[in-house]
Amino acid sequence: MAKKDNLVTGVDIGSSAVKVCQLQKTNKGYNLVALGSAPLPPGTVEDGVLQEPDEVGKIIATLFKNLKIKNTKVGISISGYSVIVKKLNLEVMEEEELAEYITSEAEQYIPFDIEEVYLDFQDLQTAGEEGERTDIMLVAAKKEVIDDYLDMLQEQKLKPVLVDVDGFALENIWEMTTESLSNVALVDIGASKMNINIISNGASVLARDIVVGSDQLTDQIANALGLEYEEAEKVKLGLLPTGEHQAQIEEIFNQTCTQWVLEIKKAIDLYLANHPDSPLDRLILSGGGSKVKGLKAFIRQETNLEVVSFNPFLQMKTNKKKIDPDYIDAIAPEMAIAAGLAIRPAAF
What we know:
This protein is α/β, with parallel strands linked by helices.
C-alpha cells in the first residue's frame, strides 16, 4: 500500500475569492483530493488585510463543508503592504548566531516597528565551499494582520499551522511540479495584486508584490459599457461577445495590460542587470487574472519570452468521478498558490 503523508489544507484568501485545495502525498506523487473556490463580497479583504473576518470565515467554513474536507490543519499565505520580503547578504554564521543577529538588527532592514512584526528568515546557502558571505531571505509580517487571520480561522474550528508568503507558495508548487532548474519568471495575477517571483538556478532571486490586478479591467469595462460587474467579468474573459464595443474594449485592455507588462518588464530588467549570464527561459503565468482573453499573447509579444499557463495539477492523480477534469482545467491557474500551500506537511 502506498505511504501517505499528512499535509495541510491550502487556503488562499484573495481580495475577490477564497481558494481551497487538499492534496494527498504518496510514494508515487500527489493525489488531488479536493479543490474549490468561493467568491468574496467586495471589500471583505483589501490589500491582504481582513476587513470583514466573520463574513470571510463563514465563506471558508461553507467551502470546507461543501467540499467535505475533514482535515482542519490549514496553511494560509499573505501578501500586500503588511509583509516585507528582503534579501540580505551577510557573513556566514552558525544558525543560532544568525538568528540572534537577525533579531537584533532586523529594524534597519524593514520599515515597521520590530515589536509589531513576526520575523522569519532562511539561509539560501549561496556561500559555496569557501564563501565568506551568504544570501538570507528575511520576511517580516505585521502581527496585527496575521493574528486577525489566525483568530478568524480558529473561530471556524480550523487549526492554522502554517503562514507563508504568496510568492514562496507559488515557488514551492512550481519546483514540485517541474524537475527543471531553468530560469523562469513566475507571475501570478489576482484580482487586486500581481506577484512576481523570479527563479534562477533553483532559487528565488527577486520577489515583489505590485498593487495591480484584473479587477481594474472589470471595473473599467463595466463603467465604459454600463454593464453589471458579472457581465463585465464575462466580457473580460471572452465569454460574452463585444460586438460594436470591440474597439473600446481593446483600448481598455491595451491601456491596463500595458501597465501590467511594464511592471513585469521592470522586474525582468532588474534581474538581467544582476544576472546577465543567466537569461530567462520562460514566463509562467497563473492567477485568475491570467485567464483574461488575449493576455498571454500580449505578454509574449512584449517580453519576447515563451509564456506558459501554469496548471499545478497536470501530473497529479485524481478521481474523475469526484472532480470533473474540465473543472480542474478551468480553475487550475487560479489555484496555484492554494496548491503551493497544500503540498506542505502538517506534522507540527
